[in-house]
Amino acid sequence: MTRVALVSGGTRGIGAAIAVALKAAGYAVAANYAGNDERAKAFEAETGIPVFKWDVSSYEACVAGIAAVEAALGPIDVLVNNAGITRDAMFHKMTPGQWNEVISTNLTGLFNMTHPVWSGMRDRGFGRVINISSINGQKGQMGQANYSAAKAGDIGFTRALAQEGAAKNVTVNAICPGYIGTEMVRAVPERVMNERILPQIPVGRLGEPEEVARCVVFLASDDAGFITGSTISANGGQYFS
Ligand code: CAA
C-alpha cells in the first residue's frame, strides 16, 4: 500500500526537495506551507504534490490541517517536521517577539504537528517522524540564541519520543543540516557568509537541499527500522558531535 507522507514547510527550500524526493520514492505526499500562496501554487502545479496552508505554531490549525490531509490522502505514515524560520539578532538586540516567534514555530511546532498523528501511528504499528533540526542546535551560533535553543530542543524531543515510539515500530529521528543553499541561508549578510561561514565548511561549499532530502528518504524507509533517536549530520564537515 502506498504510504502517506506530510512535509511541513514543504513548498520551498529543503522542504520542497524532501517532498519531491519522497514522491519520487513512491509516497503519496502532502506539503504544508504557512504564507507564500504564490510559491505554493507554483510548486503544486510543477510537482503535482497537493499543498495545504496552515501555521504550525497553532495547535488548533495543525489538528484541522492534518485532518484535511488525512481526508484527502489517508492516514499519515511519515511526518517530516521541516517548517522553520529565523529571526537572527545578537542577543543584546533580540526582542521577546523574535524569541517567541522562533520558539513557537521551530520547537512548539514539532509538538503541534506530531501530537495529532502520534496515536494513529502507534495504533497502526508503523510510523516515521523525521525532525529537521540544525547544526546550530548542535554547536550554537552567535546571532541565533532563539534558533539554536529551538533546534537543540528539537533534538531532545526526538530522543524522548524515540523511546516512546520504539515498541510500536514508530521511529523518531533528527537530521541536522549545515548551511544549505536556500533562501534562508542566502539571507545571511554576504560579508558574514564569505568571511565567516564558508571558510568554516571543510567541503568548501554550501549543501544542496537534495543532500538533506536523501537522508529523509532513507530514514523513512523500512531499511531504517532499527534507527531511532538518532541524529544525522549533513554539514560538509563543519561540525562533528
Ligand atoms: N559565524 C561567524 N561569525 C558571525 C556569524 C556567523 N554565522 N554571524 C555574525 N558573525 C560575526 C560578524 O562577522 C561580526 O564580526 P566582525 O565585525 O568581527 O566581522 C559580528 O558577528 C557581528 O555581526 P554583524 O556586524 O553582522 O552584526 P549585526 O548586529 O549587524 O547582525 C546578525 C548580527 C543578525 C547575527 C548577522 O551577523 C547575521 O545575520 N549573521 C548570520 C547568523 C547566522 O549564521 N545565521 C544562520 C542563518 S541560516 C540557518 O539558520 C539555517 C541553518 O540551520 C544553518
Features:
alpha/beta, Rossmann fold, 7-stranded parallel β-sheet, 7 strands, 48% helix, binds acetoacetyl-coenzyme A
SSE blueprint and pairings:
Elements: E1 4-7, H1 13-24, E2 28-33, H2 37-47, E3 51-53, H3 59-73, E4 78-81, H4 96-106, H5 108-124, E5 127-132, H6 135-139, H7 145-165, E6 170-177, H8 183-186, H9 190-197, H10 209-220, E7 231-234
Parallel strand pairs: 1-2, 1-4, 2-3, 4-5, 5-6, 6-7
Helix pairs in contact: 1-10, 3-5, 4-7
Characterise the protein shown here.
With 241 residues, this protein is an alpha/beta fold. It has one domain (4-229): 3-Layer(aba) Sandwich (Rossmann fold), CATH 3.40.50. Helix content is 48%, strand content 15%. It contains ten helices and seven strands. It has helices spanning 13-24, 37-47, 59-73, 96-106, 108-124, 135-139, 145-165, 183-186, 190-197, 209-220; strands at residues 4-7, 28-33, 51-53, 78-81, 127-132, 170-177, 231-234. Strands 3-2-1-4-5-6-7 form a seven-stranded parallel sheet, with helices on both faces. β1 (4-7), α1 and β2 (28-33) form a beta-alpha-beta unit. α1 (13-24) packs across α10 (209-220), α3 packs parallel to α5 and α4 packs parallel to α7. The radius of gyration is 17 Å and the shape is globular. The N and C termini lie far apart (37 Å). The model has no long low-confidence stretch (mean pLDDT 97). The chain binds acetoacetyl-coenzyme A (CAA).
